[in-house]
Amino acid sequence: MTSTNTRVASAAFCAATVLVAVTACGGKTSSSGGDAKPPTDGVLVLGLNGDIGQPPDPDIYYANNGVAIIQNVYEGLVKYQDGVDRPDIAPALATSWTVNPQNTVFTFTLRDGVTFHDGTPFDSSAVKASFDRRTAVNGGPAYMVAGVQGVATPDARTAVVTLKEPNSAFLDYLASPFGPKMESPAGLVKNAGADHAQDFLSKHDLGTGPYELSKAETGREYDLTAYPGYWGQKSPFTTVRLTVYNDVSALQLALDNGDVAGAVNALPSSNLKRYQSLSSVTNHFLPTLGAALLTLNPSKDFFRTQPARAAFLQMIDQKKLVSDVMGDTSEVATTMYGKGMIPGGADQQHITYDPTVMAAYAKTLPPNTEMTLGYATGNENAQKMANIVVAQLQTMGIRASAQAYPTATVFSWPNDPTKGPDAFVDGSNGPDGGNPYMWGHVFWDKSGGINYFLCDSPAVDGMLDDAVKTGDIATYVKAGDAYGATGCYMTLAYNKDWVVAQKWLGNVENAHNIGSFELNFNQLTIDAPK
Questions:
Q1: What's the pLDDT score for residue 253?
Q2: Residues β-bridged to residue 405
Q3: CB 3.0-4.6 Å disulfide test: which of 108, 190, 211, 444 passes with 224?
Q4: Which residues fall within 8 angstroms of residue 44, CB to CB, at 6 or more apart?
Q5: Average pLDDT per 10 consecutive residues for the chain, totaling 530 residues
Q6: What's the family (predicted)?
């Protein structure tokens, strides 16, 4: 099948760092920490940890920090179910769908009574226009429609998508936070310009979501306004203001002062015990598709052989490492794929903790053998885990060191893995969606984008390509077992979104989405004082 080009940035792979705040008339919820009051004017202020980095255009945006905009302004045909710990496909602008046995024809029944923010009624013509526009723009997430042969519109409420080749992961492409979103056909024509409306959608929107984009000031602020004609659940917050902060300590101060209503995966885990001890806030640990990973570099002498790689992985005290460093912000991973991707966890990871194997291997190495364990600059959890493992290696007589690498450098390693370290602790990464193909292809296939050191098994690549055509779970499990046998890879932890919220902010867990690492703001509520 045609290989998909995955983005070379950690997506979902770094969870979105959004802080949720609410302002009263004076722009604050309270004047003192621990005494935050709910807003009286319906204004919800979100503090972004850094700018979103790209225009909030659903066919361009392919990062993390702006997913909150995309998710709350635009909608796709399907989505991942909110408030659950599995990547279950749920209705969005399609109320139902059928798939032919060959996984090549997907027929969608469309929701009635939906309008775009420009007043255009949503119908099947919008599906074709939106798919065509994504192809024409050809941004990072364009691969999700690259396999589409055509979109038929037999009537206003029916859209039939035909693929060039079988793809059982196609619904997951559509459910992804980076999947194709529906855009007003009339608005795309009216504002086409010379760039398929890219300039227009950098500061406006053409979506159907509960909010409209009403202001976009790069590096400063993004405002959303509740769309009065929204077909679904109405929000108690009529305005959402996303204020850009470039210093996490400033966001933390706002939370402590009661000016911020909540923090979504934005605080370092070193603050975990402190916030868990505060009676003024609630802590939520919500499931994501992200994970902490450990990858080994077979192009380096230290890990050139499979027994050496296997010995190193057996040295990792996974349960203690994850518990000591990440605490309640994660759970120990037991599977090769992401959390919940294989029903029943049949894709078990077969690594037995036994440090004596590595100790024996260390004795066969030349004196003063050096080894470098890398981590991404700024990832506190990865740095701590790397330091712990390095200390353990040093007790075995290995001159091990931990080294930070900028993200741009990390993603350059597939061009020449010999320039990378011997191994890499990836503190937070994940796929674009919840299908096992979207995990295996990204992390294990040398063409996937996040197989940093190109540890590749052609047999595994073939099994993944076969499995995505049919959706056969047994083949996915077999592929996971085979890649695990290379000794190049270990899923360390299933990461969670740690949400710290003032007590009045309600329905947080049900508003959370496992696929997007984000909250649906129209589902948040204001709880009565207890």
A1: 85
A2: 376
A3: 211
A4: 20, 21, 22, 23, 237, 239, 240, 241, 261, 521, 524
A5: 40 42 42 67 82 93 87 97 92 98 98 98 98 96 96 98 98 97 98 97 97 94 96 92 84 83 79 90 93 97 97 98 94 95 95 97 94 95 97 97 96 96 95 96 93 97 98 98 98 94 91 89 85
A6: Belongs to the bacterial solute-binding protein 5 family.
Task: Scan for tokens 């599906």, then name that residue.
Answer: 127
Cα 309-322-47 angle, rounded to 5 deg: 120
Pairing of strands 43-49, 18-23: antiparallel
- Partners of 491 in beta bridges: 293
CA pair distance 484, 461, nearest whole angstrom? 13
What is the dihedral sign for C-alpha 330, 333, 336, 337? Answer: negative
* Residue 319, CA atoms < 13 Å, CB-side half-sphere: 4
Cα dihedral 410→298→429→493 (10° resolution):
-140
CATH of domain 290-495: 3.10.105.10
Residue ranges of the alpha helices (H) in 194-350?
A: 248-256, 272-276, 306-315, 318-326
The SS3 assignment for 288 reads strand
Distances (CA, A) of 117 to 10, 176, 342, 495: 31, 22, 38, 35
Strand partners, 160: 107, 152
Task: Enter the pTM of the model.
Answer: 0.91
Q: By three-state DSSP, how is residue 328 classified?
A: helix
Report the length, in residues, of the chain. 530
Q: What is the 3-state secondary structure (H, E, C) of 51-116?
A: CCCCCCCCCCCCCCCCHHHHHHHCCCCEEECECCCCCCEEECCEEEEEECCCCCEEEEEECCCCEC
Question: How far does CA 3 lie from the centroid of its chain?
Answer: 21
SS3 of residue 3 by DSSP: coil
Closest Cα partner for 508 from 517, 495, 521? 521
Question: What pLDDT does residue 35 have?
Answer: 64
pLDDT at site 206: 98
Contact between residue 215 and residue 71 where contact means Cβ atoms under 8 Å apart:
no
Q: What is the Cα–Cα distance from 151 to 170, expressed in whole angstroms? A: 14
Which tokens in the block code for residue 372?
Answer: 């470098």
